[in-house]
Design brief:
Strand order of the largest sheet: 1-2-3-4
Strand content: over 45%
Structural class: mainly beta
Order of helices and strands: HEEEE
Shape: elongated
Number of strands: 4
């Protein structure tokens, strides 16, 4: 999965993930949370800069192991997508 994600990101010159609200409910060594994020993927097409923007919410399940919190499961929900040329 890591290789496929890396290959996908190679299509873009710049990648931004701007994290917003993060709400977590902890229950012992497990937790559930929701994270809101804006993703901007900037590419060049025919000499023009194109921004592919998305709003994403992640529903996460976490587990506390060996002194750290880890994501055990993540479900992504793409709320909206927008594609437009950037002014240079």
């Amino acid at each position: 999965m890591g290789e496929a994600f890396e290959a996908f990101l190679a299509n873009f010159e710049t990648v931004y993930h701007i994290n917003g609200q993060h709400v977590v409910e902890i229950n012992g060594d497990k937790a559930e949370g929701t994270l809101y994020c804006r993703v901007d993927l900037i590419s060049s097409e025919n000499g023009k800069k194109i921004n592919n923007a998305s709003a994403v919410s992640y529903k996460d399940e976490y587990v506390y192991e060996d002194g750290q919190w880890l994501i055990a499961k993540r479900t992504s929900n793409f709320v909206w997508n927008d594609r437009q040329e950037l002014n240079q």
